[in-house]
Amino acid sequence: MSSIPDLKSPVSSFVPLENERYDYLFKVVVVGDSGVGKTSLIQQLCFERFANDQKSTIGVEFNSKSLLVDSKQVKIQLWDTAGQERFRSVAPSYYRGSLGAVITYDTTYAKSFEQIQFWLNSLNQHCPTAKILVIGNKSDLVDLRAVPIEVAREFAEQEDLVLVEASAKDLSSVEFAFNKLVSVILADRNATSLAQETYSNAHSPPPPAAEKPSLSNVIKLKIDERKAKKRNSKLDQWGISKKVGRQPQKMGSHGGNCC
What kind and span of H or E run contains 39? Predict the structure, then answer.
């Protein structure tokens, strides 16, 4: 178990190893009733180990895991929260900054499935933008199943949640479940970036209109144009006279042109 980062800045306070490289760093909070196997899932994901006598979490525990999802190296911070009622008032303080959340229930214990709504309401209140994954743990205990998969799927569809059944004991679908959550977060980030870029382009301010010149400036411009034309005309006449070796002469006193 790693030390717990500062709650005020849960993501940025995490300091990776110097040789560690990743494209994204996501905070994921794991919630659910006590005894559903939250810690066992995380231990299996991060260290590929399982303990039958896993002790209950007190407060919060912290681990991390790097996953390659959609050609991106993603490091997820896993915040394993306590499920006992005496810690429920404290748990929401750990939700801040979460981009993803995992609600865990026990497929052999119907009460833990019924509590999903409580955890969903809490997440929606304290981290409404987080993408939520529901994991039905202990899927290996087929004979003890108390929550039909059809019921779980119907609930997930109604609430627009991602549902995966897994087993922390035999590693079944554990990494697949977290890969699925990360993929959803990545897709949402890409869509949000595209939407923001599109909105920015569509609502960018128009270029400033050209300043309309005043009437006095227009008159001055016209006078300058006429002077320029007269000057150019004289220069052209001078140029033609130079070609024939003669200079233009002034008009005679009788008004006739001297040739």
Answer: helix 38-47
**Is residue 173 situated within a structural domain?**
yes
- How many alpha carbons fall within 13 Å on the CB side of residue 95? 23
Report helix, strand or coil for 101: strand
Q: Is 50 a residue whose pLDDT tops 60?
A: yes
Query: CA-to-CA distance for 139 and 49, rounded, in angstroms?
Result: 17
d(CA 40, CA 210): 68
Indicate whether 221 and 95 sit together in one domain.
no
Q: Residue 188: how many CB atoms within 10 A of its CB?
A: 15
What pTM, to 2 d.p., does this model score? 0.67
Higher pLDDT, 251 or 30: 30
* CA–CA separation, 75 and 186 (whole Å): 12
184 and 228 inside one domain:
no
Taking only the tens place, the pLDDT of each residue in 147-171 is 999 999 999 999 999 999 999 998 8
The answer to whether position 196 is within a domain reads no
User: Both tokens of residue 70?
Assistant: 């959609």
Of the given ranges (38-47, 59-68, 210-219, 248-257), which has the lowest mean pLDDT?
A: 248-257
Claim to verify: residue 177 and residue 230 sit in the same structural domain: no
Q: Is residue 43 part of a domain?
A: yes
What are the distances in angstroms from CA 20 to CA 24, 25, 44, 65, 255?
12, 12, 21, 12, 98
Domain of residue 118 covers 24-189
Phi-psi region of 173 (alpha: psi -120 to 50; beta: other; left: phi over 0): left
Residues 51 and 122 both lie in one domain: yes
Contacts 24+ apart (CB under 8 A), 84-92: 84/34, 84/56, 87/58, 87/59, 90/59, 91/31, 91/60, 91/122, 92/122, 92/125, 92/126
